[in-house]
Design goal:
- Helices cover 32% and strands 26% of the residues.
- The longest helix is centred in the N-terminal third of the chain and has 19 residues.
- It is α+β, with helices and mostly antiparallel strands.
- The chain has eleven helices and 17 strands.
- It has two domains: 103 residues, TATA-Binding Protein (2-Layer Sandwich); 239 residues, Rossmann fold (3-Layer(aba) Sandwich).
- The strands form four sheets. Strands 1, 2, 3, 4, 5, 6 and 7 form a seven-stranded antiparallel beta sheet that branches.
């Protein structure tokens, strides 16, 4: 058994100790394999000074292993068997414990709880929606030490944060809440048809169109063969003078949306509104024909300011202080952030 296979809940880091619960009774052989993989993972990602495992020490319903270093015991792995779950605890240095906490956080069992979000915070709709995205793991953060940094700008630059709302449909209650909020936001916009953008926003656009009783089609990001149509699900004459609402999952600079808007207008459609679930608020690049220059108004449910709001408690976001500071530094100036990390920053534009 590998550490990355274990689903966990109730994860916490208190100084030197990381605690978590897996809702399964692990077999002795599985725990032994888990201890070995914890050592391998720890040596590779957390503390290269770890050298080996001590012998298994058993009690009535518990067991533990020493994590050895050059100077002796560097930590300890504890397992307690309950009636229908297994409790895990790992003792390490505070720095190593925080790294392990960040690793296990990615394996938490997601149980969306809209009621808990409302109880734990009082904020705007944008902040509440951002909290929900944090809760289901749709907002991801990496410092580059445990997981690679995320690629942005046509895979030419890096980012410590990534917003992935493609998994919304995996959580029906959350999906319905988000799309109901979206329907309320755009219902007063004057449009005839919804256009999603391949591929992340197709399901969002389709369900939003269904809620609003509008037809829907989608735009391709690239034409894979010469005779391919830039739009699927609609014919050119059916777009003549139709008012189109562009729909996408996130917005970084707006270049893809601007390109699609221009192609729609070339087909005879009218485009003056675009909806996204999450706005990273990185638009406004002078080199690009962004949405504002095209006269396309942007509507978003939430954005980076809401996601980083102090009103969202860490019990929801699981964000650490170092991760918060890293993301803030990136958004202040991506160019400076790249230089500070020793990374090359590429100036990109709509054609890239």
């Amino acid at each position: 058994m590998r550490l990355a296979q274990v689903p966990v809940r109730e994860i916490e880091c208190a100084g030197r100790v990381v605690r978590a619960i897996t809702p399964y009774i692990l077999e002795y052989e599985e725990v032994a394999a888990l201890a070995r993989d914890l050592l391998d993972t720890g040596r590779r990602l957390i503390d290269p000074g770890l050298t080996g495992l001590g012998p298994r020490q058993r009690e009535s319903n518990a067991e533990s292993y020493a994590l050895l270093g050059a100077g002796g015991e560097a930590g300890r792995f504890h397992v307690v068997y309950d009636v229908d779950e297994t409790r895990l605890a790992v003792e390490l240095t505070p720095e190593a414990a925080m790294k392990l906490y960040r690793l296990l956080r990615e394996q938490r069992i997601v149980r969306p709880d809209l009621g808990a979000v409302r109880q734990l915070m009082s904020g705007s709709l944008a902040e509440t929606l951002a909290a929900i995205l944090w809760q289901i793991g749709a907002i991801k953060v990496s410092l580059g030490d445990l997981r690679p940094l995320f690629k942005v700008d046509g895979n030419r630059n890096f980012s410590p944060i990534y917003i992935d709302v493609k998994g919304l449909s995996n959580y029906p209650e959350v999906n319905d809440f988000v799309l109901s909020a979206a329907a309320l936001l755009v219902r007063n916009i004057d449009f005839d048809v919804v256009c999603g953008i391949e591929a992340g926003s197709i399901s969002i656009a389709a369900l939003l169109a269904q809620k609003l009783d509008r037809p829907m089609f989608f735009a391709r990001r690239e034409l894979r063969y010469p005779e391919a149509s830039p739009f699927e699900g609609i014919r050119q004459h059916e777009l003549f003078r139709k008012r189109v609402l562009l729909v996408d999952d996130t917005l970084v600079h707006g270049w893809t949306k601007a390109r699609v808007a221009k192609e729609l207008r070339a087909w005879g459609a009218r485009v003056d509104a675009c909806f996204v679930v999450f706005d990273r608020q990185q638009a406004g690049v002078p080199a690009g024909d962004d949405l504002e220059r095209l006269g396309v108004r942007l509507y978003s449910l939430t954005n980076r300011d809401a996601a980083l709001s102090p009103k969202i408690p860490r019990e929801i976001s699981f964000l650490t202080d170092s991760e918060y500071a890293e993301v803030e530094s990136y958004f202040q100036d991506p160019r400076v952030w790249h230089r500070r990390r020793g990374l090359q920053f590429h100036e990109v534009g709509p054609a890239d």
